[in-house]
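Deliverable D2.4 — example input (C-alpha cells):
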C-alpha cells in the first residue's frame, strides 16, 4: 500500500511554498493510502516532492492544516512544547506591564493551527479547533503545564469552528480546579472573566488597545456603548471621565457583570444605564426621541460567517453606522468595529462611508484600529487579520 500523502494539483503548490497554512479540497489531486482524519500527513506536489506536513480532516473544507515545511518535524509533544514556549516569549515584548490577561497562542500565527490559548491570570482557556488537536489534547495540556504552569486549564470550544470540523465539545476542565470566574487586570482596571459561560474564551482580549484609544475621547462625554458585553469599553470610558455611560447588549448576564465591573472599579454613577435590547432597535428609539451622544461605540459580533453572508453583513454594518452617525453631537466620535474576517478593512471603510453619505453626516477618520498585538497577523496568512476599527469624527 502506498505511503499516505496528499498530492496537490499542478500549480496549486504556490500558496504552500509561500507559507499559507491551509490546503483546501479544491487544490488536492488525490489522497494516497488510507490515512485517518486527525492523522498528520505529508503534502506533496504532483511529482511527489515533499512540500509540508499537516493535520488531515476530510470532513472540513480545509482538508489539511499545515504546521511545518520541514520534513524532519512532526507534531510531537516536544514540538508543541517548543512552539508554545516560543509564543509565550514573543508575548513578553508586546504586553503592558499592568495586564495579566492575554492571548498566549494565536493558532496559525504562532505555528499551531487550531490552537488558541488565552491566559487569565493563573488560568488558561483553550480552544483545540481541529480534529487532530482534539486527538492530541493530552499532549497540548502537558505542554501548557510544562511551559506556563497554570493552576487550571479550561476548554472553551468555539462553536463555529467546531461545526466546520464536524465536532461537538462542551466547555470542560482539562487540568486543576477551574473556578467559575477569575479576576484579571487590564491596564490597571479590574475585570471579571466568566470562564465557563462567557462569550469567546470569556473576554474580548483583542480589543484591549482599542478600549484604551477610544477612552481618550470619552472625557466629559455622554457615551453610548453598543454591543457592550461585560462593559469593558464602558469602564475605560468612565475611568477617562465620561459623564454618563449607557451599555446596550442583548445578554442580561453580560450586562449584570458590566454593572458589577463598573462598581468594582469605583466608577459607577447614578446616570449610567444597562439596557437589555437589540442595538438595531435601541438606536432607532434614540433617533425617535432625538437623543444625542458625544461618543458611540459599535462593537458588534461577527456578521459575516461565510462568503454568501458578506452582502447581508455589509447591510447590517451600514444600518448601525448610519443610525449612530445621526445620533452624534457636532464633532462627536464614532468608534466602529467589525470582527468579520471576510470584511476587509477597505470594504469596511466603504460601508462606513456609505453610512455617512446616506445619513447626510460627513465624517473624518481620525484613527484606524486593529486587533491587539498578542493576536499577531501572519503575513503569509492574511486570514489571521480579522478585527478592524475606525474612530471617526462626525462633522
Ligand atoms: C464582540 S462582542 C462585544 C465585546 C465588547 N465590546 C468588549 O469589549 O468586551 C458582541 C456583543 O454583542 C451582543 N449582541 C449581539 N447581537 C446583538 C444585538 N442585536 N443587539 C445588542 N447586542 C447584541 C452579544 O451579546 C455580545 O455581547
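Example output (designed residues):
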Amino acid at each position: 500500500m502506498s505511503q499516505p500523502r496528499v498530492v496537490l494539483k499542478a500549480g496549486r503548490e504556490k500558496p504552500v511554498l509561500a507559507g499559507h497554512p491551509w490546503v483546501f479540497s479544491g487544490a488536492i489531486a488525490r489522497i494516497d493510502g488510507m490515512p485517518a482524519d486527525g492523522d498528520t500527513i505529508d503534502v506533496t506536489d504532483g511529482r511527489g516532492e515533499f512540500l509540508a506536513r499537516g493535520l488531515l480532516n476530510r470532513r472540513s473544507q480545509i482538508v489539511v492544516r499545515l504546521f511545518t515545511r520541514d520534513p524532519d518535524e512532526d507534531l510531537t509533544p516536544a514540538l508543541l512544547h517548543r512552539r508554545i514556549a516560543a509564543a509565550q516569549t514573543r508575548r513578553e515584548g508586546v504586553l503592558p506591564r499592568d495586564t495579566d490577561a492575554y492571548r498566549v497562542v494565536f493558532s496559525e500565527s504562532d505555528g499551531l493551527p487550531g490552537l488558541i490559548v488565552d491566559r487569565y491570570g493563573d488560568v488558561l482557556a483553550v480552544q483545540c479547533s481541529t480534529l487532530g488537536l482534539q486527538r492530541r489534547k493530552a499532549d497540548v495540556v502537558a505542554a501548557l503545564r510544562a511551559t506556563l504552569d497554570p493552576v487550571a486549564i479550561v476548554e472553551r470550544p468555539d462553536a463555529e469552528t467546531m461545526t466546520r470540523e464536524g465536532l461537538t465539545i462542551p466547555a470542560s476542565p482539562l487540568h486543576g480546579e477551574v473556578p467559575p470566574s477569575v479576576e484579571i487586570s487590564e491596564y490597571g482596571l479590574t475585570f471579571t472573566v466568566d470562564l465557563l459561560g462567557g462569550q469567546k474564551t470569556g473576554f474580548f482580549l483583542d480589543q484591549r488597545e482599542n478600549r484604551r484609544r477610544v477612552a481618550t475621547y470619552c472625557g466629559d462625554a455622554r457615551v453610548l456603548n453598543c454591543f457592550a458585553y461585560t462593559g469593558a469599553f464602558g469602564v475605560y470610558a468612565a475611568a477617562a471621565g465620561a459623564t454618563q455611560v449607557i451599555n446596550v447588549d442583548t445578554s442580561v448576564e453580560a450586562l449584570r457583570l458590566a454593572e458589577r465591573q463598573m462598581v468594582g472599579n469605583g466608577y459607577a454613577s447614578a446616570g449610567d444605564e444597562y439596557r437589555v435590547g437589540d442595538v438595531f432597535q435601541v438606536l432607532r428609539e434614540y433617533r425617535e426621541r432625538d437623543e444625542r451622544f458625544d461618543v458611540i461605540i459599535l462593537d458588534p459580533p461577527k456578521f459575516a460567517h461565510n462568503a454568501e453572508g458578506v452582502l447581508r453583513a455589509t447591510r447590517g454594518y451600514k444600518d448601525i453606522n448610519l443610525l449612530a452617525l445621526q445620533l452624534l453631537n457636532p464633532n462627536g466620535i464614532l468608534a466602529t468595529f467589525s470582527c468579520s474576517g471576510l470584511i476587509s478593512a477597505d470594504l469596511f471603510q466603504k460601508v462606513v462611508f456609505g453610512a455617512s453619505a446616506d445619513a447626510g453626516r460627513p465624517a473624518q477618520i481620525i484613527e484606524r484600529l486593529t486587533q491587539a498585538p498578542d493576536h499577531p497577523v501572519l503575513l503569509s496568512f492574511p486570514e489571521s487579520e480579522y478585527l478592524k476599527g475606525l474612530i471617526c469624527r462626525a462633522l
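The CA atoms of residues 20 and 346 lie 22 Å apart.
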